[in-house]
Amino acid sequence: MARIVDVDVMDIRFPTSRELDGSDAMNPDPDYSAAYVVLRTDTDAEGHGLAFTIGRGNDVQAAAIRALAPHVVGRQVPRDAAALGALSRELVGDSQLRWLGPEKGVVHMAVGAVVNAAWDLAAKLAGRPLWMFLAEMRPEELVGLVDFRYLSDALTRDEALAILRAAEPGRAERTKLLLDKGYPAYTTSPGWLGYSDAKLTHLARSAVADGFDMIKLKVGGDLGDDVRRMRLAREAVGDGVRIAVDANQRWDVADAVSWMSALAEFDPYWIEEPTSPDDVLGHLAIARALRPIRVATGEHVHNRVMFKQLLASGAIDVLQLDAARVGGVNENIAILLLAAKFGVPVCPHAGGVGLCELVQHLAMFDFVAVSGTWENRVIEWVDHLHEHFTDPATVRNGRYTTPTTPGFSAQLRPSSLHHFTYPSGPAWAPTPGHSRAYGPLSEAQHVHKPANGEEGDEGGTA
């Protein structure tokens, strides 16, 4: 049997703060980064995964992944649900590392990166894209991947099994539909807070021309600016296109209610992360005050237990799971089953480095084998950094193209690994006008922000 012989971890950072791509009210100048892991075997097969960060701290995330290597090196290559479930349980169950969470934060994200890399490896060996590899598993195998501890008061094993069995009869038809049509998407690309009004308007119109029927804007910096930007966006896209807004945790409960009440005239589809992602009661109060405006959250919800509370309390209308925040594929299956139990649509968070590539598989698996629907469901699309992946996510006419290459679509190109390794890669060399490389507490944290109406670059990132 093939074995894992090494866990290779790299600190990969992209200087996205130079153009303010990814900027929002809480994170004004992110450098999109990946603590990138490769599971190397004694064959040619490899498994690739990552934890997404926004710059400083990516080295801390990489160190956490390295700390898990003793659980992985020497292990037989996992090829089926039983082995992948056992790996996940062992990684999560390391009591001394778990103490640093438990089951949250840097260590839990490290678990997710390694677990996802193992799924990438297993799916490649099976000759299937990850979504199909999962969707072809028996309900009993899928349920065996889920840790029901702390969940059974809201979702039992038998209930999860019933959900999966109910979706079995239409799997083949939905697989064909997915391959023929792809999966619905919305785009955040027009809405970064650091973009000028002219750039926002141009990109919003371009999104509609490209087939999107939903866009998203960042809000929460200044109410007057947000009112103006929402008016411009609504005028640019018309009444038939949904506009979601995202506050990135900026507000207290009362602020969220008053701020969104001021934006209500522009018919926002949802408000995302209106307050702390840990504040279940706060989300519930906001939801009660603002409906029919939907409340969405999930990209910073750190485990299945928090999602259980958000769902069971009725605090959210849209669940935004993240492929790299929780403990990998296994825990995200638990979250998908919870969402199906409570009838809440899943609209995954994406963007960043590789999040579009990863999360498309989870949404497509959900469509085929869990919820059986894409009604009121969309995957976020941000057109940044896809060119660095060997199997990049693509969107055509407002829909994700269904991936068919075996694996989890997580593998970065060797040239990109070389160019963007921090701090030695050429992308981090000093540039004209700057005395040293972009990086911790450098000029990247003090870039020029375009004034309103000033034309900016229309592209993605370097």
Estimate the helix proportion, in percent. Answer: 25-40%
Q: Briefly note the CATH topology name of the largest domain.
A: TIM Barrel
Counting DSSP H or I runs of 4 or more residues, the number of helices is 16
Kindly state the mean pLDDT as a whole number? Answer: 92
The number of distinct β-strands equals 12
Cα(first) to Cα(last) distance is: 42 Å
- Could you name the ranges where pLDDT drops below 50 across 5 or more consecutive residues? 434-462
Overall 3D geometry? globular
Look at the structure and name the CATH superfamily of the largest domain: Enolase-like C-terminal domain
H/E element sequence: EEEHHHHHHHHEHEHEHEHEHEHHEEEH
CATH C-level label of the largest domain: Alpha Beta
The total tally of domains equals 2
Largest sheet: 9 strands, mixed
* Strand fraction: 5-15%
Just name the CATH architecture of the largest domain.
Alpha-Beta Barrel
Oligomer: single chain
Specify Rg, calculated over alpha carbons: 21 Å
Task: Specify the structural class.
Answer: alpha/beta
Protein name: L-fuconate dehydratase
Catalytic activity: L-fuconate = 2-dehydro-3-deoxy-L-fuconate + H2O
Keywords: Lyase, Magnesium, Metal-binding
Pfam families: MR_MLE_C, MR_MLE_N
Please provide a written account of the structure.
With 462 residues, the protein is α/β, with parallel strands linked by helices. The protein has two domains: 4-129 and 413-446, Enolase-like, N-terminal domain (Enolase-like, domain 1); 168-400, Enolase-like C-terminal domain (TIM Barrel, Alpha-Beta Barrel), CATH 3.20.20.120. It has helices at residues 58-67, 81-92, 95-98, 105-126, 130-135, 139-144, 157-167, 171-181, 197-209, 223-237, 253-263, 280-290, 304-312, 329-342, 355-370, 414-420, and strands at residues 4-13, 33-41, 46-53, 183-191, 214-218, 242-246, 268-272, 294-297, 318-319, 379-381, 395-396, 399-400. A hairpin with a 4-residue loop joins strand 2 (33-41) and strand 3. The model is unreliable at 434-462 (pLDDT under 50).
